[in-house]
Amino acid sequence: MSQDLYRTSLTLLTDLYQITMAYGYWKKGFAEKKAVFHGYFRKSPFKGGFALNAGLAYVIDFLNNFSFADDDIKYLSTITDAEGQPLFEADFLEYLRNLQFDLTIHAIEEGTIIFPNEPFIRVTGSLLQCQLIETALLNIINFQTLIATKAARLRIAAKDDQLLEFGLRRAQGIDGGISATRAAYIGGFNATSNVLAAKLLDIPVKGTHAHSWIMSYDDELQAFKAYADVMPSNCIFLVDTYNTLEGVKNAITVGNSLKEKGYAMNGIRLDSGDLSYLSIEARKLLDDAGFTEASIVASNDLDEYLINSLKIEQNAKINVWGVGTKLVTAYDQPALGGVYKLSAIQDENQKWQYKVKLSEQINKISTPGILQVRRFKNANGKLNADMIFNEEENISNNPILIDPNNGIRSKKIDKSKNYEDLLIPIFENGKLVYNSPSIHSIQLKTIKELSQLDDSIKRFYHPHEYPVGLESTLYNLKMNVIHKLKS
Ligand SMILES: Nc1ncnc2c1ncn2[C@@H]1O[C@H](COP(=O)(O)OP(=O)(O)OP(=O)(O)O)[C@@H](O)[C@H]1O
Ligand SMILES: O=P(O)(O)OC[C@H]1O[C@H](OP(=O)(O)OP(=O)(O)O)[C@H](O)[C@@H]1O
Ligand SMILES: O=C(O)c1cccnc1
């Protein structure tokens, strides 16, 4: 499991300000006040209509190992303030050394479609612990959700074709490469070229060969022949080193000798030039030579727009797509803006005090409450609307959803609709109560979820906005808290 990488103590994987705030809470005597935070994002990435939730398994491993090791404490004791004095007093560091993770966490499962403004995670427990986990939690989920979303968009474009992830060489560092491979698989990729990720994650590993193989021989035909000698049942020939269509002919020559020996040539790979024209011509050559089953793999700066154009507008004859850079770097949107906000805190009488962060920008005003996301579905299983509500309030059987960014937009939900509450228990008072599904079942979930999402929300240009609203009691609570703060 790739999570092995996260099984040492990563408790210091945070911003210093989380620890200074924790120190402040401790000093002021409210470190253990009960608080609730939610993680959510405000805008779907890639100008799209949805995101695909990923990263929870890593969050679980991070939290399972959440404790300050002796050398963490030792390091913290060396941090100094502007006057060169230790920033943290020894008793606080002792408090951290003895800290037992005991948060309660609810989260949306990986492979679930999620939308702006709805919490994908809810964290309940001591203010100090809630604060200390913020940065790592956002680091993990923002990246994996971003890449899983990109992968899901590529899956939409590629329809039933094979998608291979080729991104490691261009990924953002080592963990960027491994996390991206994981997220790509969750989003619907069939295999990766990344051997370490494949081993750690138990996912299929695949690949062809590079131009250097061809260049290391005097000519292309010799290079193909040598490759076929060594790996007769693993032959996808890269045909574009010198002249693509001549390369296809050489592949056919070697394919014929393989056939005589009882092997099938698996296919060819195109990596430059006009992929549409070349794939159509290559298909004709292969079919005419009897290689109707041979695959045509394409790579070279592919993304969902190009795949869509090649398949739909240009009728390209490509059935396997190798995608690297634009997937693993989320090229057109390098970060998901997921945030983590305090929404309630208990007073001395254990009564919730609801909290809101104000902003001049209405979409940046946070939502108070102990929130849950209820997803309503039509009789045919298609997603209909998501309702965010406060678990502390009784809600009507026929709730009204109000757009959090526009109070005059509302939608009535009729009570006959099926629904599911998406935030499910993951940790209860620090104890893991959730069995992480295998990565293969997460991918199956993704495929099912994508099939339940209307095409108008999946389209790449100006997608329809899926209805996500605050249940009306929650909307009123939010307005009240805002008005109180403003007065
Ligand atoms: N039919 C097509 N329609 C739209 N874009 C295409 C088509 N075929 C190829 N492309 C894209 O055009 C871009 C340029 O490809 P091309 O092979 O001409 O240049 P290159 O990438 O610089 O070549 P090389 O890989 O040899 O350096 C690539 O992003 C490629 O994916
Ligand atoms: O284009 P990507 O989506 O990132 O896919 C991975 C790329 O990596 C390899 O190229 P290589 O590193 O040999 O560079 P080049 O093909 O650009 O010369 C491969 O031939 C693909 O073109
Ligand atoms: O196996 C391949 O064809 C491959 C692997 C990584 C990058 N580009 C291509």
From TrEMBL:
Positions of the Nicotinate phosphoribosyltransferase C-terminal domain: 372-478
Catalytic activity: 5-phospho-alpha-D-ribose 1-diphosphate + nicotinate + ATP + H2O = nicotinate beta-D-ribonucleotide + ADP + phosphate + diphosphate
Residue ranges occupied by any Nicotinate phosphoribosyltransferase N-terminal domain in the UniProt entry: 12-142
Keywords: Glycosyltransferase, Ligase, Phosphoprotein, Pyridine nucleotide biosynthesis, Transferase
CC terms in the record's Gene Ontology section: cytosol
EC numbers on record: 6.3.4.21
MF annotations from Gene Ontology: nicotinamide phosphoribosyltransferase activity; nicotinate phosphoribosyltransferase activity
GO biological process, one term: NAD+ biosynthetic process via the salvage pathway
Transmembrane parts of this sequence: none
PTM text: Transiently phosphorylated on a His residue during the reaction cycle. Phosphorylation strongly increases the affinity for substrates and increases the rate of nicotinate D-ribonucleotide production. Dephosphorylation regenerates the low-affinity form of the enzyme, leading to product release.
Keyword Phosphoprotein: yes
Pathway per the UniProt entry: Cofactor biosynthesis; NAD(+) biosynthesis; nicotinate D-ribonucleotide from nicotinate: step 1/1
Domain of life: Bacteria
The Nicotinate/nicotinamide phosphoribosyltransferase domain, residue ranges: 163-350
Record family assignment: Belongs to the NAPRTase family.
The protein's role, per its UniProt record: Catalyzes the first step in the biosynthesis of NAD from nicotinic acid, the ATP-dependent synthesis of beta-nicotinate D-ribonucleotide from nicotinate and 5-phospho-D-ribose 1-phosphate.
Cited NCBIfam families: NAPRTase_put, PRK09243.1-2, PRK12484.1
Stated name of the protein: Nicotinate phosphoribosyltransferase
